[in-house]
Specification:
- The complex is a heterodimer of chains A (about 650) and B (about 260).
- By secondary structure, chain A is α+β, with helices and mostly antiparallel strands.
- Chain A has three domains: about 1-185, no CATH class; about 200-310 and about 505-644, no CATH class; about 315-495, no CATH class.
- Chain A has helices at about 5-15, 15-40, 50-80, 85-90, 95-140, 150-170, 180-185, 195-215, 220-225, 230-255, 255-260, 265-305, 310, 330-340, 370-380, 400-405, 445-455, 480-500, 505-545, 550-560, 565-605, 610-640, and strands spanning about 315-320, 345-355, 365-370, 390-395, 410-415, 420-425, 440-445, 460-470, 500-505.
- The longest helix of chain A is centred in the middle third of the chain and has 44 residues, at about 265-305.
- Chain A is elongated.
- With about 260 residues, chain B is α/β, with parallel strands linked by helices.
- Chain B has a single domain, classed as P-loop containing nucleotide triphosphate hydrolases (Rossmann fold, 3-Layer(aba) Sandwich).
- In chain B, about 35% of the residues lie in helices and about 25% in strands.
- Chain B contains eight helices and nine strands.
- Chain B is globular.
- Classes of the chains: A alpha+beta (about 650), B alpha/beta (about 260).
Amino acid sequence: MTFRQFAYRNVVRNRRIYAAFFMASAFSVMVFFLYSMLLFHPAMEEGFVQEIASTGMMVAEFILFVFTLFFLFYSMRAFLQARSKEFGILLLLGMARSQLQRLIFLETMLIGGVAIVAGTFLGTVFSKFFLMIVEELIQLPDLPLYFTWKPFALTIGSFASVFIIISLVAPLFIRAGEVYDLLQGESAEQQAYSTTPWRAFAGMALLVLTYTMAVYATNPYVVRIIFVLPAAAVTGTYFFFSDSLPYVIQLFRSRKRLYWRPFWLLSLSEGVVRLKENARMFFIVTMVSTLAFMSVGLLASLTSFANQYRELNPLGLVYKSYPGNVLEQIHVRQLTDELNDKDIDYNVVPFRVLRQKSSFTDKNVSIVRVSSMNALGYTFGYPPIELADGTAMFLPPTDSSFRQLNDRNVRTKLEMSGLTVDISGAYPHQLFPPNAIGSNAIIVTDADFERILSGPDGNSATQFRYYAFNIRDWQETKDVGRALHEDELKSILLSGETGTLFSFGNPGLNYSVIRTTFSLLLFMGLLLAAVLFLAAGSFVYFRLYTTLDRDRRQFAVLRRMGITRKELKKIINRQLLPQFFIPWGVAFVHSAFAFLALQVIWDALAEISIAKELALVLGGFAILQISYFYLIRWRYLSHIRTPE
Amino acid sequence: MARKIVELTEVTKIYEGKVMHRALNRLDFEAEAGEFVAIMGPSGSGKTTLLNLISTIDLPTYGRLAVNGIEPETLNQNDLALFRRRNLGFVFQTINLLQMLTVEENLVLPLTLDRVPVADMKRRIADLADKLSLNDILSRRPDELSGGQAQRTAIGRALIHQPELILADEPTGNLDSKSARDVLELLSKVNRTAGTTIIMVTHDPLAASYCDRVLFIKDGEFFNELYKDEQRRTFFQQILNVLSLLGGNVNDLSSVRLP
């Protein structure tokens, strides 16, 4: 048996321990590879969406890379500690330290190499599938499967360097102490019973403080504390796992009436040991899960923003022309021609919007005529409204302002023209995007409208003309008016916002950009979160595995003492459940509060609620985590039950 | 004639595996209530198998076995577990206290499984702690105990639910001579005062000399039986004689320690 064979056999025969670790590594290699497939895709070169996609990919790759580095680093250390007895024997048999280092290097490179090959292979196999999903998401005509050396080189290069770094650094983790210490193995766990009360309280206090601040956050205030909160939450979480939780359990243990019950005695005492052993791991898992929840929840909420887009933008296309715009008729003709060319049904209603100063509010008010409103309303299928001369109606700028304005009765004199109108009620439907006509707008009768025009200063009363295109198949218009859009951009670049005498809006195009960007980001975020979850789970599994011998002995004692299978299961449930769900639950609470704080900002941006998306995302994660729990419990139980 | 608490009739135990192994061969054995019996024999003679069968964690291949009048074969896994929990107490060589529990918690563990009221548990602990002089170490953890203290705790755990039968596997195997003597005296005191039946597997002739009766087995079969003498010293000498007759390995005869 050569030295290399020895290393090989070490790995292959310990495959049950290495399985979860290997799986997590291979999976992250796979996802990394898929991302780079997209990153280097020849069709991904131009356009806004593509730019977002490739930047997103780059960020995701980077996060994945850093995370994998940490994950491997931490697991490797735990692995080596768990095997310290074995290393002790090797040193006792006269192995030199340098040889031990070489052994570890070979083993790590073996696992790493196989994980890279397996991950890249799986990535290649699934890449067509992946590209098809992305194609669907960003609505590209075709993302053909392609092969160049670049994604392979990036993936293999990055992960090879990670594994080399890890395997060179890992041997330093082996305690430099005496062979005897190594032979004693992992018995260092017993000293871990004490907790520091002040840290326990500090942890609780920090968390409570962060939560209250998140709940009572108001808009300007959030922006100020947004950098303090995460830091406080991170510190609080660390203390929570290292001290607060053990401290609470210790308190609980002194309450014999509660504690001396069939399963609590065993599971709690075992729990506190596990907690102390794994506090750092729980902390990392919690922070990672919080991040995953947050990013996915945020992206999901952006997607929900896109879904409410149509309600906010009921019109298909809008064209706005200010006085002095000589191209007005040409532009409108251009748009209608394009729509006709593409066979898209449309109704266009031109609005002339006047401006007058209201004596009542002393502010400018925008004025449209009732016949135009009714013409546009007709295309939506709404009944016409009737107004008498001398009366007017509010045109609410947003949906939520309708209720306030509807009950209002105002008599105002329109200065300049000298016309007096009684304003009562509000137009009951939203036909325009928010604030399109003006934040302060009213509808008057056609006769009154003419009176303003023919009154004093009537010529300068015109504020702008507004062409409202009502298009049923509004998502079809994303290619309409591209030239116009470019003209507008050029004009803004040349003469600034005020010098540009027209503006053109295409909600169909905006919607498709927003939707594809968000769904792409969401998709990538979900993949990333899946990797993180798998890694966290594999860590729990590995930890269980390293203490398997001890646990087995313990359950052998319990079996003699007379514990039924059902009771054994109950005890194991009570031991495993917290390990899986406490970090997860804390992450859950963390992100819920973070969303509460974010909702404040978000609500101000647009009137949407993210509760549904969040429930969906968290539900999905819950299912994932529960199935992982059952999988690992099944393995663990079958290992525990088979005697050594 | 006292009630029989353990009865084995022509019990054979065969371990099937890659190599078939007959651990016990047509062994007859019985223990009466209140007896203190030692089982001796060389390594591989089937002592531990015998103890496992009586513990009901293993079932005989042939023959009849009854513990406290109950045949383990007739019970399902669940009832067996309950039976063990209520009727048997165990003391092992490797002391097998649960590391994460304090002495007190280790003691009440069997009771918590049966949902005994807390007041009851406290009363029993107070009783036992006096008897086994555990009062000073109740709140310590197993890794802070000496070998003797740990074994006393283990005996306490075996006694707390007042079982009818205690099974001990080399209870003095890891102890120094002073602690070993303490433990043995404790066991025989429990046997005399509470009338608990004790069956103890041991290598140590001195430990065996504390018993009422010693059963010798060899290669899974009955070899000899000795009854207690007036004098422990002569009983000890007789045990040594049988052991030398048994042959076995030199290692199986521990050095002579006179009481």
